[in-house]
Amino acid sequence: MPKFVSKAQPPLAFIPQRLTPWVIETVRFLLPAWMPWKLSVTSVEAENLKVLVKLYQEFQAGNTRFLMAFRHPSTKDPFAMSYMLWRLVPKEARKTGIRFKRPTYSHFMYDRGIPLWAGEFVSWLFPRLGGTPILRGKADRMGLRAAREIFANSPYPIAIAPEGGTNEHNELVSPLEPGVAQMGFWCIEDLQKANRSESVYIVPLRIRYRYVSPPWQAIKELLDQLEAQMELPAEVSPPGLLKDPEKDVLYGRVLRLGECLLVEMDRFYSKYYHLSRPEIEPVPYDPSDRNAKLAFQLKQQLDIALQAAESYFGLTAKGEIVDRCRRLEQASFDRIYRQDLDQLTPVERGMADWLAQEASLRIGHMRMVERLTMVNGTYILEKPTGDRFAEIVLIMWKIITFLQGGDSHSPPQLGTQSLKLTISDPISVTDRWPTYSANRKGARKAVDELTQSIQTALEDLNVIEP
User: Among 37, 97, 277, 366, which is 20 to 30 Å from 333 by CA?
Assistant: First the structure.
């Protein structure tokens, strides 16, 4: 969503998918040049492609339906998925002499809010690439119905990110939302109503970016910029947590930047929103452990930031952070995108504009929290690689840029990257159907267990490589 909306607007219209082969083929032709030029991705490889080749073959033969549940560490992921499906899968099929009846296209589900910040071109492009939108934070019946129809009846499969959004981490999987698992069972329901017997599968798929060379110099320069914006002194005391002295100094700078950012946030929310972090300590807690203290205070500060928005919208702080973020997003949409604009008097319309302006500002608290939810105190310490340092520093850049009103969706490129996609063995939804169809309790159990199976598969894929 744009950082500031000045007027109340009509409801967000549903954008139906209209997969257009010539658009896909144009993007397919441009991808090899686009990825290194705009995304700094210079090489792409995929592991276990034979899994997708077999699934597409069975799909086109009318024997299976399948959904690709892909990891979502970056906004680059749609390009990664497209490159794999449009180029690598056909290439692998040719090696084994397999001929597909149709191209290996795929539909995909995307957040309806993306075109609001990405622009009108995305509103035009995504549907023609096979995208179908969903409004997060509410029961979007039209969006769900469209995705359900695609899964059961389209001549192409569908891809969905079960994490619900990017988490900015290549080696850390967010808790999954249950919607993907539910989609699998709905697909079986729809097939049975049509007297069809295809087997239904969900395919977990990892996407991982790695810097071709550790971007240590670029990380240092970006930290220089961020420290200058926070007016921090050049000298820093290394915390002594890493064996490598240079990395330890770098980690000290990251810790200090995080600590100072939290101090600024605490001062801001305390002074202007009368919300302060409670004076409690985690148990067990070592006061000398800066790392643990920072992680604990960050969690407290995220709660404070969400409270600042929830108090305005009249929402109760209930559930996990991601649930609270979704409810806040929908509350802001309800005040900005109004169903009743044509029924308002001019005076009421003016007050509706006020509400829209206030909502667009208040939701900024939630946008900030979204970027910080996956930051923890051990990610760098567990594996102090250039990739992990870069991920955390880029998250800080996005937060500081967002707070200053800049374009946080266009981060600096710290270096060229390689891309690897890894396909897991398909998970059968059909085998879980008897449990799901038994009763409501069985349905909840089946959805929970399938969601956990997808989560486990994605986490296992994440630890395959050192």
Answer: 277
How far apart CA 448 and CA 442 sit, in angstroms, is: 10
On the question of pLDDT at 175 being above 60, the answer is yes
| C-alpha–C-alpha distance, residues 117 and 2, integer Å | 5
Length of the chain: 466
**With 50 as the cut, is the pLDDT of residue 2 above it?**
no
HSE, CB side, 13 Å, CA atoms: give it for residue 3.
10
pLDDT digits (tens, 9 = 90+) for 71-105: 999 989 999 999 999 999 999 999 989 999 999 99
Both tokens assigned to 193: 């109503």
Facing residues of 208 across strands?
Answer: 420
Under 8 Å between Cβ of 69 and 183: no
The answer to whether residue 373 scores a pLDDT higher than 90 is: no
Q: Of 138, 140, 150, which Cα lies nearest the Cα of 323?
A: 138
pLDDT at 297 over 90: no
The phi and psi torsions of 165 (rounded to 5 degrees) equal 175, 170
Q: ∠35-135-427 over CA atoms, to 5°?
A: 70
Q: How far is residue 301's CA from residue 141's CA, in Å, rounded to a whole number? A: 34
Chain position carrying tokens 């939302």: 177
Place of tokens 């267990």: 449
Structure tokens at 421: 């996609």
Alpha carbon distance 93, 413 (integer Å): 34
The partner residues of 64 in beta bridges, in order of sequence, read 199
DSSP state for residue 100 in the 8-state scheme: -
Which candidate, 335, 397, 339, 396, places its Cα nearest to that of 362? 335
User: Cα 388 to chain center, whole Å?
Assistant: 17
The pLDDT score that the predictor gives to residue 462 is 72
Tokens standing for residue 212? 């071709």
CA within 13 Å, CB half, 270: 11
Q: Is pLDDT larger for residue 356 or for residue 288? A: 356
Q: Which residues are registered as beta bridge partners of 201?
A: 66, 428
Q: What per-residue confidence (pLDDT) applies to 288?
A: 55
